[in-house]
Amino acid sequence: MYNNLGLIHYRRTRSPFCKSSHSTRAVPRLEKALWSSWGWTEYTFGGGVGLSFNWKTFFPLASFIGGIVTIILTVVIWFSFPHFDEGWGWPPLSMVGREVPSFYIFSTGFTVTGVFVVCFAFQYLSFLNQLQTSFAVTKKNVWEVPMTIGFFLAGLNLAFLALTNHREVYYSKIAPHIITTLVMFFAALTACVCGYKALSHVRLNAGDDTIGRSKEGSARAMAYLDRLILLKLRVMMLLGVAVMVHVPAGYILPGIMCKGKTIKISMNDCKETFDLAPDYCEAWMSSTNSSMTRLNNNKCGGWLILASVTQHILIVVLLLVILTFAFDLSFDLKEKQAGNEDDSDQKPLELGKI
């Protein structure tokens, strides 16, 4: 049963992985059904947008999950082994990624995630072209190319920054890590904005009737596209807030408040005062002075913790923006044409069968 906006309230399907039919009762915020073709799970949320777990949504979902899992595992492993937090309390990602063994999770996880982002860039470009055909859009979409280039560069530099963050590479050639980090962030930010604009372009230039749908089906398709755009806009606004908070909290304020409060840790202090293993201290030995380490003791209170926490929040929100593209890819481009039949009997916007 469907309401007039195409939201799923109740569906009975048969999965090839199950012997019997399955039905799902309506719930206030989340409704679940089985996708009959492959048995993948599909969700429709209270805001009226659907998310399908299938091969078409794999890359944006894998990018989001890969990023989140890498962050969690890296931090957990970092805390599980002897380390010196340099006064941060809660570490920034670049710090936990420099340590061993957390570096191995950091480099592997973000390299694989970077590959997913690169693949997603081209997949979403193909989806936009099909969407524009479905909505009879003839005006050139100038946002497609910068979006694709942005996601491609973001994924590529994510892999590079992960692989160049090892403590030896980081301190001997720190520039590659900084450059790749900046390129990754600004490329991803640009790509997300261009992706939103590209989807908005389709809606603004859509024809009166979408291809293969009746007038009523076209109206529902337009309404659903509006909800996708609204979802992306809201998460983008959240990303903007996260950026505006992190820039002063992560760079400006710590730079001012922590000035002159950083000192190097000697090898003796590393082993005796902080009671760290000799092997660990020697791994961080200064390349110019064997009596000193490359570890810093930052006596800066909570400013460093604030910087690190806002960095993690910013990264998570950026991953959430990428997740919104999975909702886009759940949009059905092959809804059955109503023809001369009553459109009320046709399936409206069944997700996940792109």
Structure, explained:
The protein has 354 residues and is mainly α. It folds into three domains: 1-48, no CATH class; 55-261 and 306-333; 262-298, no CATH class. The protein is 57% helix and 8% strand. The chain has a three-stranded antiparallel sheet. Helix 1 (58-80) packs antiparallel against helix 10 (303-329), helix 3 (102-134) runs antiparallel to helix 4 (144-163) and helix 6 runs antiparallel to helix 7. The radius of gyration is 25 Å and the shape is elongated. The two termini are 21 Å apart.
Q: Kindly estimate the percentage of residues that lie in beta strands according to DSSP.
A: 5-15%
**Class computed from helices, strands and strand pairing:** mainly alpha
End-to-end distance = 21 Å
* Arithmetic mean of pLDDT: 80
H/E series? EEEEEHHHHHHHEHHEH
Overall 3D geometry? elongated
Query: Main β-sheet: number of strands, strand sense, barrel status?
Result: 3 strands, antiparallel
Radius of gyration, CA atoms, in whole angstroms: 25 Å
Low-confidence stretches: 1-46, 336-354
Count of alpha/pi helices? 10
Number of beta-strand segments: 7
Cross-sheet strand order for the largest sheet = 3-4-5
Integer count of domains: 3
Report helical residue fraction: 55-70%
SSE inventory with pairings:
Blueprint: E1 12-13, E2 22-23, E3 30-34, E4 41-45, E5 50-52, H1 58-80, H2 93-98, H3 102-134, H4 144-163, H5 167-172, H6 174-204, H7 215-257, E6 262-266, H8 267-273, H9 278-283, E7 292-298, H10 303-329
Antiparallel strand pairs: 1-2, 3-4, 4-5, 6-7
Helix pairs in contact: 1-3, 1-10, 3-4, 4-6, 6-7, 6-10, 7-10
